[in-house]
Amino acid sequence: MEITNTLGRRKTAVARIYMKKGSGVITVNGRDYKEYFPLATLQYVITQPLMLAEVDGQYDIKVNLDGGGVAGQAEALRLAISRALVEINPEYRPLLKTKGLLRRDPRMVERKKPGQPKARKRFQFSKR
Question: Residues 73-87: pLDDT tens digits?
């Protein structure tokens, strides 16, 4: 049985997945993905590449998630699943690429600058 291993990132979240043929079980850090991500929108984000490729319920996915928040982790997992699907079958690439699922979202938190309370916020200006 061949296992596909890929990586997905978003903000500070990292998703390492192990994908193999199976019954469609997605396990995240030892728990079911619906228990780990209780929001329906995040569950949709995770299953989006599987539904687009029409292979929902055909692969077992074991996930190690680390860092970031729940939304960042869900999007990191989506990227990892998309990359794994392309590795398994290169014909999925154009479909997933047009939907933007193979692109790592480059947006990161801007750093806080010295002499300011936050990254862009300034202290109140006083003329006198």
Answer: 999 999 999 999 999
Longest dimension (CA), the chain: 75
**3-class SS letters over 46-91:** HHHHHHHCCCCCCEEEEEEEECCCHHHHHHHHHHHHHHHHHHHCHH
Whether the predicted pLDDT of 1 surpasses 80: no
CATH number at residue 81: 3.30.230.10
Q: Which helix (H) or strand (E) holds 119?
A: none
pTM, two decimals, is 0.91
- Count of structural domains, the chain: 1
Per DSSP, the three-state class of 60 is strand
Domain of 84 in residue numbering reads as 4-98
Matching residue, tokens 């997605």: 26
Q: Average pLDDT in the 105-115 region? A: 95
Task: Tell me the C-alpha distance between 107 and 76, whole Å.
Answer: 13
Say if CB 53 and CB 92 are below 8 A apart.
yes
